[in-house]
Amino acid sequence: SMGEGVVAADAQGRFVMFTPAAAEMMGQGMAAVPPEEWPAYFGIFHPDQLTPYRSEELPMVCAMRGEICDRVELYIRSPRSGKRSWLSVSGRPLRDTGGQVRGGVIVLHDITEQRQSQEEYRRLHERFSGIYHSSKDGIAFLTMSGLFLDVNPAFERLTGYSRRELLMG
Fold this sequence. Notes:
Layout lengths: L4 E6 L4 E4 L1 H7 L11 H5 L1 E2 L13 H6 L4 E9 L6 E12 L5 E10 L1 H23 L5 E3 L5 E4 L1 H7 L3 H5 L2
Antiparallel strand pairs: 1-2, 1-6, 3-4, 4-5, 5-6, 7-8
């Protein structure tokens, strides 16, 4: 029932847990697919949205090797469901009481809305850059959740807050 997706696999890459939230984010759930086929099976791409991840680069595979990874961005283009999503993934090895790596676990955080907001901001910023920077009116770009993406110089003057202060939240 967690909002974040959680996936666990044993040392051979067999999934032992795949939460409903993870299945929703990935566009499909648990499958008996070896790790070397995960990038193609799940449609896992680098942030350029074109370059498929190599299996050895995936956060789960890194965790299964005993490595820790944090906030790795994946673009999912599910070949089965057609789902498109952006994920931030962190992984940790699963160890037995003796310290031996017995698998890995990853936590998936859906950042699709954030990435879409950033892309929309980039497009608007490019289109209206001259007006944005020279306007005497304060202009701010915010995410749907209210985080500042950018402010123009007039906004800084009117509010007394620096761009840096506002963007750091």
